[in-house]
Design goal:
The chain has about 325 residues and is an alpha/beta fold. It has nine helices and eleven strands.
Length: about 325
């Protein structure tokens, strides 16, 4: 009988295409990964992977084995999820995934309100733009932009409409002038954050394609904090949600084209199985209700109703005027 723990190693190699990358993903050395693969191949008496175009890809037999591995993984995750459905205590760990901004500034102080009544609750918050796999219990609850995702057996609700605006530093605008229309953006410098699937954070059309993108991108990063500091440092114009502009406090940043606003939906998502867990359902409902209460903050910026989330406020004219009639982007 071969070692069951060898199968995730085979899966990691097939997904990454190399022993080294699989080792990094699993926290193992490259020689260990190679040795475990050879042991599995010796057990079957057949090659599982072959090298093609510099990458390791499954052989015909290897793909057959991987099909079984995927089913084993799904069954293991189902066992894990079913155990969660039996938990009726408002104590223990709840894993939440969110992006920077919402997950780093708004969520922690708001969740602390929940803990005031449930002190035995522990929150494990994963921050990033990748979609945590809810079926595999990488997270119990996820906050996702634009859509809940395509994964099967998800339950989701839209919890906020979030307005995005255009921002630049006072120094940059003094040097380059203030754009008076969306078309004029193309003549300026851009600061870009690379978010989900390496998609640039910028104005988009109905097909989610960037429009009015300046030819000159002076700063690009996958980190929102670096992105915001680059806007404040005068690299150029960037797109930010109005409810995050409090993170620019201390930086000489101004909102430009204030009658422009692009609205994106924010969704709260969970797997249908884990929602039957008392503690996960309680946290899910609490976050949904908190976002409903703070709807004006997400839509217009200004002040969050949650006193402990005051570090996310928008001050000195950065918040939206609810009377503004927002213009749409030109395709």
């Amino acid at each position: 009988m071969n070692n069951w723990s060898d199968y995730p190693i085979l899966l990691a190699i097939a997904e990454t295409g190399s022993l080294t990358a699989a080792g990094k993903k699993l926290g193992m050395s490259q020689p260990t990964v190679g040795r475990r693969l050879r042991a599995l191949e010796e057990h079957f008496g057949s090659r599982l992977l072959s090298k093609e175009g510099g990458k390791l890809i499954p052989t015909t037999f290897g793909q057959s084995v991987l099909d079984h591995v995927h089913r084993m993984q799904e069954e293991a995750a189902a066992i894990d999820r079913s155990s969660a459905t039996l938990e009726h205590s408002l104590a223990g760990v709840v894993r939440i995934s969110a992006t920077e901004g919402i997950g780093t500034a708004w969520l922690p102080p708001v969740l602390q309100i929940f803990r005031q009544s449930h002190a035995d609750m522990v929150f494990d918050v994963g921050i990033g733009f990748r979609e945590f796999n809810l079926a595999q219990r990488e997270a119990d609850i996820a906050l996702r932009w634009q859509s809940p995702g395509t994964q099967n057996s998800l339950v989701a609700k839209k919890v906020a409409d979030v307005t995005f605006g255009l921002f630049a530093s006072a120094g940059y605008l003094q040097k380059r002038g203030t754009p008076q229309s969306l078309n004029e953006l193309e003549e300026h410098d851009a600061v870009i954050a690379m978010i989900k699937d390496e998609h640039p954070l910028w104005i988009t059309d109905d097909n989610d394609q960037p429009v009015h993108m300046p030819d000159n991108v002076t700063f690009r990063t996958n980190n929102i904090w670096a992105f915001k500091n680059a806007i404040g440092a005068g690299y150029g114009i960037g797109v930010l949600p109005l409810c995050s502009c409090g993170m620019l406090d201390g930086l000489p940043v101004r909102r430009i084209l204030p009658n422009f606003g692009q609205i994106e939906g924010l969704y709260l998502v969970a797997h249908e199985d884990v929602r039957r867990s008392t503690r996960i359902r309680a946290v899910y409902d609490f976050i949904a209700d908190a976002m409903k209460q703070d709807a004006a903050f997400f839509l217009n910026g200004g002040e969050s109703i949650f006193e402990n989330a005051a570090n996310m406020h928008c001050g000195d004219g950065l918040a939206d005027n609810p009377a503004h009639k927002h213009i749409a982007t030109a395709n």
